[in-house]
What does this fold into?
Amino acid sequence: MWKCRILLALGAAALLPAAVPGTSPQDPVDAARFILVGDTGTGDERARTVAAQIRRTAEAARVSHVFLLGDNVYERGEARFIAGKFLDVYRGVLSLGVRIHAALGNHDVVPCEEAGRRPVPRDETAYALSSECEVDAHLATPEFGYRDGFRYYSIEIPGSRSPEEPLAEVFVLDSNTLGKDDTKIEDGTDEPQLRWIAEALRASRARWKVVAMHGTMYTPTRCQWLGFICRDDDEVLRSELEPIFIEHGVDAVFQGHQHLYARLRPQRGIRYFVTGAGGKKPDSARDDARTVRREDRGAFNHFVYVQVTEHRFGYCAIDAEGEIRDRGSFGRGDPADGEFDGEPCSP
It folds into this structure.
C-alpha cells in the first residue's frame, strides 16, 4: 500500500523521462560525469537549496547520475517521509532524466534489527521488517535507484562519446551490515557483501573504480556537545574493506555520515572524500594530518561533481550557492593531485 500511495500521490512515472543527459555527440571530450552527495534527507530548506544547485549543475554539465550516500530519509527512514524528504526535493533533478542511485545510511535503518538469516541476504530480508523498520520501502522506490531492489550493487557509466564502454563504475555498498562500530549484524559480518564487492571489482571493465557508501573508513574527527561526543574513522570497517579495495584497484571512495566536506590525502594509493552535508546543518572538522587542511573546516552544505576521462579523474566540491570550494584531478598512480579546470569547475 505504501508504494501505491507514493506513486499515485506524486505521479512518479512523470519523473522518469526517457532522455539521458551526458551523451552529447558534440562533446569535445569523451567523459563520464556524475555527482555524489550525502545526508540529504531532511526535506528542509538546506536540502532543497543543495538539490536545486545539483539540478543547475547537472543541466549545465550534462551529468548522467547522482549518487546519494545514505541518510536519505531522516530521522528513522519512515516510508511516509520518502515523498516529502526525497521525491519532492529531487523532483527537479529527476525531471532532467538524471538517474539517482542511493546507498542506505544508518538513519535509513535506525529502527531495524537484523533478521538473523545466514548467509546474510542481499535484499531487504537481511533486516527484520516491521512497522518501524521500513527498509523495504526504500529498496522498492524506483527513484532511489536500488538496482534490482538490492542493498548493494554497481552502476557502469559510459563515456559521452563511447556509450558501449564504461569509463567509470560506481560500487554502492550497504555499510550498515558490515563490520563497524554500530553494525546491525550481531554475530560475524555480511560475508556475501564482502565476496560480492571483491568479485565485482575484479570483473569490472571500467577505467575508474569508485565506491559510494555511508560509513567512514577515513575521515577527520568532528565533535558535538562541547566535544563530549566525537566521530572519526571506523577502523573495523576499514579492516574489512581496505584490503579488498587495494587488491582490486579502487581509485576513489566517497563517504557520508560526517556532516561536512573533507578530502584526504591519498591513503595507500586511494583517494577518500567525505561529503555528508547535502541537507543536514554542517559541522566542523578538526585538523588532521591526513586531511587537506581547510580554513572553513568543511562546514558548508555541498555536493561533489566528478568528471572522468580515460586518463584523468577530476572533481570539485560545489556549495549550495554554486561556489567552487575545492577542486583537483589525478591520473592513475599520481602521488598528489593537480589542477582541474573543466566545466563547471573552472576558477
Remarks:
- The chain has seven helices and 14 strands.
- The CA atoms of residues 79 and 137 lie 6 Å apart.
- The helical segments are 2-10, 45-61, 82-87, 91-95, 135-140, 191-203, 235-247.
- Residues 45-61 form the longest helix (17 residues).
